[in-house]
């Protein structure tokens, strides 16, 4: 079968630790991108006491064809203002030393949800002063004031995903812009040079080898510090189909190229996702 999953996609049976974290996320009425996006690494991450929380609900105002999040229209404007507090309490309960906060894209909100990122960062630090925080942000429609708002809270890492090569944006990310995403990363570094910048590329969507190399170069030219590359997996039969299962050897080559181009930390492999082993990647960058 053309789209039969390769052997590396085998998932482990959840143990009690994994089930406990999943249960607590539900009890605290929180959203986790690990579950919403059907991430293949959920068992690995939960077992290692890692979690990626998603704020601003679970409905997105964008229409990316690869994404499993619910889609909504621009009239959708409500959100749960207590989400950040509950996240901070669960981070404390679980004793998380590293946490990733991401969100759906909310073009309907005046600040794109930037203030909620700030609130989440501040509350986590109030209750967990030694916890490292990575935020994975949307593009905020390129509005500088929203980016500055998030930066004011001083997260340890700011990630913004380029997702795919420029040629495929019109087909896969019609409401996003390739250059705008690159500019966000460069602007972060210009405003806060001490902040670690990070991005991610999905492979197997129809990109060419040369396009991947160009995207890696573009990210590094825009001062991206850390990079992850992983295999795209269609969440359902209705989503954009997988065009190719990239070999482990090819992932290794891309990773080596990225390091030669000057990235301080790179994670490249079939099961890699943007937030996968985020703590280890940050530690690698810190010691580079």
Describe what you observe in this structure.
- With 288 residues, this protein is an alpha/beta fold.
- The chain has one domain (12-286): Aldolase class I (TIM Barrel), CATH 3.20.20.
- It has eleven helices and ten strands.
- The protein has helices at residues 16-27, 33-36, 42-47, 83-94, 114-127, 144-151, 169-172, 178-191, 209-221, 248-260, 278-286, and strands spanning 31-32, 52-55, 59-60, 70-71, 98-103, 132-136, 157-159, 196-203, 226-231, 265-268.
- The strands form two sheets. Strands 1-2-5-6-7-8-9-10 form an eight-stranded mixed β-sheet, sandwiched between helices. Strands 3-4 form a two-stranded parallel sheet.
- Helix 4 (83-94) packs parallel to helix 5 and helix 5 runs parallel beside helix 6.
- The longest helix is centred in the middle third of the chain and has 14 residues, at 114-127.
- The radius of gyration is 18 Å and the shape is globular.
- The N and C termini lie far apart (43 Å).
Highlighted features:
globular; 11 helices; 288 residues; two-stranded parallel ribbon; alpha/beta; TIM Barrel
């Amino acid at each position: 079968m053309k789209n039969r999953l390769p052997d590396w996609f085998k998932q482990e049976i959840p143990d009690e630790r994994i089930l406990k974290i999943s249960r607590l996320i539900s009890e605290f009425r929180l959203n986790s991108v690990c579950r919403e996006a059907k991430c293949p690494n959920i068992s690995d991450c939960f077992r290692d006491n890692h979690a990626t929380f998603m704020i601003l609900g679970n409905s997105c105002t964008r229409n990316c064809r690869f994404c499993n999040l619910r889609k909504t229209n621009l009239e959708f404007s409500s959100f749960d203002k207590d989400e950040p507090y509950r996240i901070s309490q669960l981070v404390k309960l679980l004793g998380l030393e590293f946490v990733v906060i991401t969100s759906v894209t909310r073009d309907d909100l005046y600040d794109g949800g930037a203030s909620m990122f700030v609130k989440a960062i501040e509350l986590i630090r109030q209750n967990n002063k030694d916890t490292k925080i990575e935020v994975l942000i949307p593009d905020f429609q390129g509005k500088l004031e929203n980016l500055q708002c998030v930066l004011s809270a001083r997260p340890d890492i700011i990630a913004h995903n380029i997702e795919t090569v420029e040629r495929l944006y019109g087909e896969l990310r019609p409401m996003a812009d390739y250059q705008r995403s690159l500019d966000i990363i460069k602007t972060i570094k210009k405003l806060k040079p001490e902040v670690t910048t990070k991005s991610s590329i999905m492979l197997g969507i129809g990109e060419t080898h040369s396009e991947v190399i160009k995207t890696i170069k573009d990210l590094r030219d825009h001062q991206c510090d850390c990079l992850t590359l992983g295999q795209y997996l269609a969440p359902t039969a209705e989503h954009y189909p997988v065009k190719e299962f990239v070999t482990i050897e090819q992932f290794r080559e891309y990773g080596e190229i990225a390091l030669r181009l000057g990235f301080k930390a790179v994670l490249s492999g079939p099961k890699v996702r943007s937030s996968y082993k985020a703590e280890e990647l940050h530690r690698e960058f810190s010691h580079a």
